[in-house]
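Hi V.,

You were right to ask for the full record rather than a summary. Here it is.
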Amino acid sequence: MHIWIFQTGEFLQIDGEKVRPMRAINLSEYFLKNGHSVTLLSSDFSHQMKKHRTNKLKSFQVSSKFRIILIPSLGYKSNISIKRLLDHLVLGINTFKYLLKYKPDNSPNFVFVGYPPIETSFFITIWLKAKKIPFCIDVKDQWPHIFLNKAKGNLKKIIKFILSPYFLAAKYTLNQADFLTSITPSFLQWAENFSKNKSPKNQTLYLVPNSKETSEKSLKKELSWWEQIIGIDIKEKNKIIFTGNINNAYDFEDLVESLVSTFLDKFKFEIIFCGEGECKPRLEKQLSHKKNIFFPGWIDLNHLLALKKLSIATLAPYRNTNDFKMSIPNKIIDSLFFGLPVITGLNGEVENLIKTHQVGYFVDKEHSWSHQIKSCINDHKKRESLSINAKLIHKEKFTSDLIYGNFVKFIEKNY
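Predicted structure:
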């Protein structure tokens, strides 16, 4: 089979060997492993690095069966902004132009379309319907509904009116797909209700990273980097870590309040915030007097894998917005793989995961960030139990073979 995958906002194989594989890399690799040919279409602009890869339409023949097409767009700095909407519009138009010029000598047998962006998904849907090519839409965000989250009353009505073309395009796109996939059962239900697409083939496709352990050969070198360049104590396994974009998707205020208090001063531990983003300067300033808190910026995969060897838990201070409540972010699943209990106050799917399977520390009115961090540091027996549970539930439910391997088999059987 010839498979097309359209996916933006993620690292690609051409970004280097030390990047974290997500949907685009993992799914393409599983199709290739099963002997299929794959064309991966993506934006030339890197969402993570916030920079253009080539600044033009570019094709990379990675192997005899694997090609990557980069489509140019404007780029943006803030994840929720007018500039990002314009970027997606230009990306959609440029994608449509590429498709109109595409010679049908090697048309796909099936297309996997990542959603959002709305505009690109919409234009691809129009082309696929015209060509009668089967496809699914993989829903990972509540676009354009996300723009209404903070608005109320008349302002919300005005914004919804202005964005009405986006709502229409989004609904049409999801409705016309042969079937929908989404990152959790809750998210899939939302997508079905919004689009009225009730296909019996609709399915949950958890957003699982292709997690792996670091080699012993690499470990010594990477730990040396952490000690000499960043200054952490590599002799102690007492690290609580955050990894990701340090942006407004997270609510750091209560966490910071706990970290700047004297309550935790008597305990020996270190916290490492790995990543960049618009919230980093303020967060770094608020915590600058704390000698046990570090901000190494973006780190490569090998550095991260080594750090996890010294870690006892991960921080996940996600905002309690509707989209996050319906999600199990890939960082949560990655933590399960490494047996790192999650400390979070995110309601919904993640809260249910933590409380049902006992894989973390849940922050609420009765259990503050300070309380849960103290529990994590002090109660070794409980922490070890949570760690074992985390590894078990990952093996039972969230492995790449289970998610991507079974999806490839489903496509082979049905298309």
